[in-house]
Design a protein that fits this description.
heterotrimer, A alpha/beta (259), B alpha+beta (391), C mainly alpha (421), A: 259 residues, alpha/beta, six-stranded mixed beta sheet, four-stranded antiparallel beta sheet, 24% strand, B: alpha+beta, two-stranded antiparallel sheet, 11 helices, 8 strands, extended
Chain lengths: 259, 391, 421
């Protein structure tokens, strides 16, 4: 399959069809263990892609390579036209455009919610304090916890913390949002509030890659599902196709286990 | 049909009653402890009387009858005053030691995480060597092996006539007051105020516009300008007191005795090796996710350290650092081995001068407890201020 | 479904590729680790020069300038001080007994560990030559001592002791796991036997020990006696009985608030006053031992308390729920879990104690540090400033001992690490 068809595929989904993220033949090793094996993936602007697969299949590594939390060993990654190379300036530029939400929230425990959100806009984007605060409050409204602004992360519930983490990532006004199993560390009753925030975000036209096991979310929101196993992309398709008519044996097996 | 209610439980016999048992156990324990204490106390008073010594603490008000090289103390003063001089000397070495050990320890701890292989190895060798040798050996080494083996005074080294180093100690140039001193400090005070103002102004400007504040640079620059202006405005703010070599001693300057020097150097080097490990451990203990989050937000390396890693590492390091400060203060008691007049040496002399040993030891311990409580109190305060709030 | 192309064909499994090779040529390694930036290059040059200079100075001193005769002539003093010459064989005999006991214990422990690794209850570790690498500081220490002794007899005896160790280690490896507790008992009995070999039947009581022998005795005796006391104090501190708790807290915190030397002085100068006049006054070494035990117990108590706190409260609840009495709960459920977690901390206390034995120099006992000082006052060496040589020698002894133990304790810590048991 050629790059052209990949791009066409993205076009068909939603949005404008410009490729936002292009990965070509990406390899990643941890010591002797190969976490990614020649991964090719193109994500279009405003597209929402869900990545799923058994644990250890390289899902997290895949999205962590996109903003250089992991350094890929081979292949090419282009984000919004910026080549992810060893150039510090490129890395920095990509990181400003890509927000990420972690499984374990990774909020800064010594800062209040507001300080967590305004830190990067003030020091990286160099916004005035008032503007950063305004933006932060706006985002907190959006994730529906404006009243928690003055608290510390440790004083919030898991769901609230994850929504703060989403707000923190959005405060940099990224063009792309990555989600690394955002609901896996949450109690069941808190999953919905985080998913709601994500659905809201998808509907606003954000380009998103979401690593998750929430198949309900995948079915309802995403444009394409990427299924990974053993560091490879096994199958890609729109949700209805993926769930009803999987092509690959490994996909069928996986689906039978989780559905 | 009514269900038969079970009869009210009978009160258990006392030996099976949990509450009675608890009281009995505690009473018994207390009885044993008190009995032992009373027994020791009886023996103590008997023995002291037999040895013709005081059984109370009035010895503290006795004339000391020994001299301490301290301008504020004469042999006519009381033993208690001698203890106070000892406490002052202990504080002197502990305070400066804590300061220097912290600086050195932080530098070495950071060096252990350096990307430079040579620096990393050198720091590791330092830590593994110093940590595994008793501090007393290090103290003796610096005193007997280095400082008092320096050349005697009459052939000691004068460096440019400014510094005099001999087996009598290190004499540094010191400053004397002159007519201009007041003017100098006045100018300096104005400069300091201006620096604070500039700092606040730059901070506010940063908040308003987001432009880089460079507040440390601004405030520091103003202070330096103030220093220079003050220096010239006041003519000559200080006279220089230089060490002058006499036959047996030096006059002028500021003298550090070899005893003080050896104790300070040894305690600093030894404690720094422990602090370095704490610093390294604390930085490593900040969770990886924190660094990742900071990276993902696009913070630069410096910003990541300044806003995310170091504030958290600092919190982690407070309790073990306090422990090292306590250890340093307690280890200063080993100054007795080289004749530095700190608390323990004063105690030792007092006991030799017929102060009753049990009470004198108790007083000595109380002095150290006071030091410990002070340091523990300060750290608890810091700890509470810094505690990360959670549910 | 529409004609849209929805799937990427599965990528054919690539032939097992190797990660991009990381075999770095030396110049590249140097560039990465020494000269990555101008600042790093500067550091490398400055540090390199300073290190080279220090290395030169130390080497020159140790191998050319130092007057090692003072150590050579006093070696016996360093090791046993005024131990009667006729009884020296007892020390050697004790060394053999200890070597055998330690070998047996080590062998049994190695077997047990092997089984644990096999059954997947412990992480495998080490690698080849681990045993050799672990022993480096100790071997170095013995080698230096023998080099100074320059005695064929001593060398042969040490080699024989090493052989005994090896033989008993091999024997220990064959002990079936179910007899493990017997091994512990045998090792303990052997240590007592070693002690008796020196003291009993017209031997030399510890009051007359000195040098390294005294150092080791104070450290081992101190930790052995302070351990049970420390456990009691820790349990007392966590007792639900307020009176017991407060007495323990006061004791622990008082001791931890004062320097060791004050406790030693208390024992040296004041202990005699606390005992009835009719009793024999204990000797100075006994008093020092009392001080070490009283002092170390407070620190051991805090270490053990940490272990007790690491046992989840659910364990105690579960024990009570199956009907164990409080005493049994502590003995069967809490202590076994707590003490396992506490071993590295205890080793740390032992290392501290080993270094702290040097303080008895101040109250006038002759362990190695005191010998270092006394030797320079002998008529042959007086006023020659040889204290640097002797201090360097005892520093090395302390360093080898405590560095070795701290490495072992790190290994233990890694082994007892989270996730297993």
């Amino acid at each position: 399959m050629t790059e052209a068809t990949l791009t066409a595929d993205a076009t068909a989904a939603r949005g404008t069809g410009e490729p936002m993220i292009v990965m070509e033949g990406v390899d990643k090793w941890f010591g002797d263990f190969q976490a990614l094996k020649g991964v090719d993936l193109v994500v279009g602007k405003q597209e929402v892609v869900v990545v799923c697969g058994p644990s250890g299949s390289g899902k997290s590594t895949l999205i962590r390579c996109i903003n250089r939390l992991e350094k890929h060993d081979k292949g090419r990654i282009v984000v919004d036209g910026i080549d992810l190379s060893d150039d510090v300036r490129n890395i920095q530029e990509i990181r400003r455009e890509v927000g990420i939400v972690f499984q374990q929230f990774n909020l800064f425990p010594h800062m209040t919610v507001l300080e967590n959100i305004t830190l990067a806009p003030r020091h990286v984007r160099r916004w005035p304090k008032a503007k950063a605060r305004e933006k932060a409050m706006e985002l907190l409204e959006r994730v529906q916890i404006p009243e928690q602004a003055g608290k510390y992360p440790g004083q919030l519930s898991g769901g609230q913390q994850q929504r703060v983490a989403i707000a923190r990532a959005l405060a940099m006004e990224p063009k792309i949002m990555l989600f690394d199993e955002p609901t896996s560390a949450l109690d069941p009753e808190m999953i919905k509030e985080v998913l709601d925030a994500m659905v809201d975000l998808a509907e606003s036209g954000m380009t998103m890659i979401v690593v998750t096991h929430e198949m309900g979310f995948a079915r309802a929101v995403c444009d394409r599902i990427v299924f990974m196993a053993d560091g490879e992309i096994v199958e890609v398709g729109p949700p209805e196709h993926f769930f009803e008519n999987p092509q690959e044996e490994r996909t069928k097996q996986f689906l039978s286990q989780i559905l | 049909m009514a269900v038969a209610t079970p009869a009210l439980a009978k009160r258990p016999p006392p030996w099976r009653n949990v509450r009675v048992r608890r009281w009995a156990l505690q009473a018994l324990f207390l009885l044993v402890v008190v009995a032992v204490v009373v027994w020791i106390y009886e023996n103590l008073t008997d023995n002291l009387r037999a040895a013709n010594q005081r059984t109370d603490f009035t010895f503290l008000r006795q004339q000391a009858g020994f001299a301490i090289p301290d301008p504020g103390f004469s042999s006519a003063d009381t033993i208690f005053q001698a203890f106070l001089v000892g406490a002052k000397n202990t504080a002197k070495v502990a305070f400066l030691g804590i300061l220097l050990a912290t600086v050195l320890g932080v530098v070495i701890g950071v060096a252990r995480l350096s990307t430079n292989w040579l620096v990393r190895r050198a720091a590791a060798i330092y830590v593994e060597t110093l940590r595994n040798i008793p501090v007393l050996v290090i103290i003796l080494f610096w005193y007997l092996g280095v400082l008092i083996r320096l050349r005697p005074l009459d052939e000691g080294s004068d460096i440019l006539g400014l510094v005099n180093l001999s087996n009598r100690g290190l004499v540094l140039p010191w400053l004397d007051r002159t007519g201009g001193t007041a003017v100098f400090f006045a100018v300096l005070a104005v400069a300091a105020a201006a620096a604070v103002a500039a700092f606040l102004w730059r901070t506010r400007r940063f908040d308003r516009t987001g432009e880089p504040h460079r507040r440390v640079l601004w405030a520091g620059g103003i202070l330096v300008v103030g220093l220079v202006v003050g220096f010239f405005a006041s003519g000559m703010p200080f006279g220089l007191s230089l060490p002058e070599r006499g036959e047996f001693a030096t006059a002028g300057g500021f003298r550090l005795s070899p005893e003080y020097g050896a104790l300070l150097i040894a305690l600093t080097l030894y404690t720094a090796s422990h602090i370095a490990e704490i610093v390294r451990g604390s930085i490593l203990a900040v969770q990886k996710g924190q660094t990742e989050a900071a990276n993902a937000l696009g913070l630069t390396g410096f910003q990541r350290l300044r806003y995310v890693v170091l504030p958290q590492a600092f919190r982690i390091s407070v309790p073990p650092m306090a422990n090292q400060y306590l250890n340093l203060t307690k280890n200063s008691s080993l100054g007795i081995a080289i004749g530095y007049y700190e608390l323990t040496r004063i105690y030792r002399i007092s006991v030799a001068q017929a102060a009753p040993a049990p009470q004198a030891t108790l007083v000595l311990m109380l002095f150290y407890l006071a030091f410990s409580l002070f340091i523990a109190g300060v750290t608890n305060l810091i700890n509470r201020r810094l505690a990360i709030r959670g549910r | 479904m529409a004609t849209r192309v929805d799937t990427i064909e599965p990528i054919p499994v690539p032939e097992p590729e190797r990660p991009p090779t990381r075999r770095v040529p030396p110049q590249e390694w140097a560039r990465e680790n020494l000269f990555s930036t101008w600042w790093n290059s500067l550091l490398t040059v400055v540090f390199g020069a300073a290190l080279a200079w220090a290395l030169y100075k130390v080497t020159r001193f140790v191998f050319f300038d130092a007057q090692w005769q003072i150590v050579e002539r006093n070696l016996r003093n360093f090791v046993v001080f005024h131990f009667p010459r006729g009884e020296t064989w007892r020390v050697w005999a004790a060394l053999f007994v200890v070597a055998g006991a330690v070998g047996l214990g080590a062998g049994a422990a190695a077997t047990r560990r092997e089984i644990e690794v096999e059954e997947g209850r412990a992480p495998a570790g080490g690698g080849r030559f681990l045993l050799v690498r672990r022993a480096v500081p100790l071997v170095l220490l013995v080698a230096v001592l023998l080099a100074f002794a320059r005695s064929l007899e001593a060398t042969l005896l040490v080699l024989a002791a090493a052989a005994v160790w090896l033989v008993f280690r091999l024997a220990g490896r064959r002990v079936p796991a179910r007899h493990a507790r017997w091994v512990a008992a045998i090792v303990f009995a052997a240590l007592v036997a070693a002690y008796l070999t020196i003291t009993a039947f017209g031997g030399v009581p510890w009051d007359r020990w000195g040098g390294l022998l005294l150092t080791v005795f104070l450290a081992v005796g101190g930790i052995a006696l302070s351990f049970p006391l420390g456990v009691l104090l820790a349990l007392g501190r966590r007792s639900t009985l307020p009176v017991v708790r407060w007495v323990c807290i006061v004791y622990i915190e008082l001791i931890r608030g004062v320097p060791l030397i004050t406790v030693l002085f208390m024992a040296a100068f004041a202990l005699g006053f606390f005992l009835p006049a009719t009793w024999d006054k204990p000797g100075l070494i006994t008093r020092a031992l009392v001080a070490f035990v009283a002092f170390t117990a407070a620190y051991v108590a805090e270490v053990v308390r940490g272990g007790l706190q690491s046992v989840p409260p659910g364990q105690i609840e579960a024990a009570q729920a199956v009907g164990l009495s409080p005493l049994r709960t502590t003995r069967l459920i809490v202590l076994p879990q707590a003490l396992r977690a506490v071993i590295p901390g205890l080793v740390g206390q032992f290392i501290s104690l080993f270094k702290d034995t040097s303080l008895v120099f101040i109250i006038g006992l002759t362990e190695i540090l005191a010998v270092a000082e006394i030797a320079t006052k002998q008529p042959d060496f007086l006023g020659q400033g040889l204290i640097v040589e002797t201090l360097l020698f005892v520093s090395f002894i302390y360093w080898a001992g405590s560095y070795w133990m701290s490495r072992e304790s790190q290994r233990l810590e890694a082994r007892l690490g989270v996730g297993y048991r």
